[in-house]
Amino acid sequence: MTAASAAFPQPSHARPPSRLFAFAEPRALLELAAFYAVRPYLSNLPEGDGHPVLVLPGFLASDSSTAPLRKLLKQLGYDARGWGMGRNVRIDAPRVHEMESMLLRIYRETGRKVSIVGWSLGGVFARELAKAHPEAVRW
Hints:
Helix content: 40-55%
Distance between the termini: 27 Å
CATH architecture of the domain at 47-139: 3-Layer(aba) Sandwich
CATH superfamily of the domain at 47-139: Alpha/Beta hydrolase fold, catalytic domain
Order of helices and strands: HHEHEHEH
Shape: flat
CATH class of the domain at 47-139: Alpha Beta
Largest sheet: 3 strands, parallel
Number of strands: 3
Oligomer: single chain
Strand content: 5-15%
Strand order of the largest sheet: 2-1-3
Number of helices: 5
């Protein structure tokens, strides 16, 4: 069993989600509007310590959807980074390996543990990456 398959097991009975879930995706526009509505207050959050933060997008999203959050984190003093893998449309062994490699590369380059922030499906990936590589993740 590879590290990727151990981190993200693929049960044989797994099926794609219902197409009805696609109707929930437009809520992202409402979430973005809410983010900008409270954005002036977010600048008052405590300053970061410069450690790296990897931000993972939700299903069907890309780094463009997490750009406002990463910008805020950078302004607060964190080393915020996007995932750089295009749209989050699939999970397979090569994609898992790529995420693990990215996490470990950031950890090695900075010499600091990485916070992982995931939005929706990205949050599931964040949790599984943290479980697979606790030595590289800030808790």
